[in-house]
Amino acid sequence: MSSNLKLKGNWNILKGKLKEKYGELTDDDLTYVEGKEDQLLGKIQKRTGQAEDAIRKELFED
Questions:
Q1: Residues 40, 28: contact at Cβ < 8 Å?
Q2: Boundaries of each CsbD-like domain copy (predicted)?
Q3: List of domains in the chain
C-alpha cells in the first residue's frame, strides 16, 4: 500500500508536525510500528479527539 510507504518514509517529518499541531501527543503515542497503523491512528484519535478520517487524511494523503 503506497500510503504506508509514504508514512514510513516521512515518519520523522510527520511526527514533528503532529507534535507541533497536537502538543498533547507524546513520543510513546507516536511510536510507529510498521503494520500497526490502526493502533497509531487510535492513539492519536484518543489524545486529540480528532476524527479518524481527518487524522488518516493528514497522515496518508498528499
A1: no
A2: 6-57
A3: 2-60 (1.10.1470)
In DSSP notation, the chain reads -HHHHHHHHTHHHHHHHHHHH-TT--TTTT---TT-HHHHHHHHHHHH---HHHHHHHHH--
| Residue located via cell numbers 491512528 | 41
As a whole number of angstroms, the distance between CA 2 and CA 42 comes to 20
For residues 9 and 3, what is the distance between their CA atoms, to the nearest angstrom? 10
| Amino acid 17: pLDDT | 85
Among 58, 61, 3, smallest CA distance to 25 is for 58
Question: For residues 44 and 55, is the Cβ–Cβ distance under 8 A?
Answer: yes
The answer, as to whether pTM is greater than 0.70, is no
